[in-house]
Amino acid sequence: MATTDSKVKAADMTVEERLRALYDLQKVVTEIDKIRTLRGELPLEVQDLEDEIAGLETRMTNLESDIKNMNDDILAKKNEIKEAGLLIKKYEAQQSNVRNNREFDSLTKEIEFQTLEIELCEKRIREFTAEMKSKNELLESSVKLINERKGDLKAKKAELDEIVSETKTEEERIKSKTKEIEARIDDRLLTAFKRIRKNARNGLAVVTVARDACGGCFNKIPPQRQLDIQLRKKIIVCEYCGRILVDDEL
Q1: Which end of the chain is flanked by fewer CB atoms within 10 Å, N or C?
Q2: β-strand 213-214 against 206-210: which pairing, if any?
Q3: Which ranges of the chain would DSSP assign to H, the alpha helix?
Q4: pLDDT at 5
Q5: What pLDDT, on a 0 to 100 scale, did the predictor assign at position 85?
Q6: What CA–CA distance (Å, rounded) separates 246 from 187?
Q7: Is the pTM above the cut of 0.90?
Q8: What residues does each domain of the chain span?
Q9: Radius of gyration of the chain (CA)
């Protein structure tokens, strides 16, 4: 109800009162901008480090899974070698009791096949071992890198927390003041203010006329337009940058 009443009162305000409210709003949001400038790129740096650490942890998990699977594959191939060796011994023993050359040749082929199987398994074991060594080295470097990044993150967070702690009370005071002023401005005008501010590089939606020029883009303002601004009878925007113009005395 209080907000609705405020908006009703905002609709009854004179143009000069609206301009005053807009200029007051610009002053307080500029203070918030200064606080955020003080924090600089720290929030983004913290976010980037958190994202990088999450990516590294995912890579570590994948590497650990790959290494485990290769260990399992090596074990499986060793078991295949053991089984093939037992079959070779079995076939060699059977060759002593064959009844004809055909049976002997058949067993010889089986022995050759199992020998090839052993060679293939040994080759695969060498490949798995080499790949596993490479992945272990990558895992080791990932662990080292993630520990470094966690150290960086801890330092950045401590730095950011210190700045936030120092400015928290002031920021809350300014935000409270911002809400109070916004309640004095009708929705259409407030939306326009926020849109202009968003598109302005320096966050200035309301600027004064200084030295016959727009305080935002510094283009010259014609004398008649300056007079209209000083009369405060209507809201005037810069024809070059779209910012709301107020006279210096306001």
Answers
A1: N
A2: antiparallel
A3: 2-11, 15-39, 42-95, 101-182, 187-199, 223-231
A4: 53
A5: 96
A6: 20
A7: no
A8: 2-39+186-246, 42-166
A9: 39
CA 169, chain centre distance (Å) = 27
Which pLDDT score, from 0 to 100, does residue 171 have? 85
Q: What is the pLDDT of residue 6?
A: 52
Q: Which residues of the chain have pLDDT under 50?
A: 1-2, 4, 8
Are 250 and 20 spatial neighbours (Cβ–Cβ below 8 Å)?
A: yes
Question: What number does CATH give the domain 42-166?
Answer: 1.10.287.1490
CA distance linking residue 8 with residue 129, whole number of Å: 77
- Long-range contacts, 163-170 (Cβ 8 Å, 24+): 163/38, 163/39, 163/42, 164/39, 167/35, 167/38, 167/39, 170/35
What CATH number was assigned to the domain covering residues 2-39+186-246? 1.10.287.1490
The 10 Å Cβ neighbour count of residue 71 is 13
> Could you give the CA distance from residue 189 to residue 193 in angstroms, rounded to a whole number?
6
Q: Are 63 and 146 in contact (CB under 8 A)?
A: no
In CATH terms, are 2-39+186-246 and 42-166 the same topology?
A: yes
pLDDT at 165: 83
Residue partners of 88: CB distance under 8 A and separation at least 6: 111, 114, 115
Instruction: Confirm if 59 and 140 have CB atoms less than 8 A apart.
Output: no
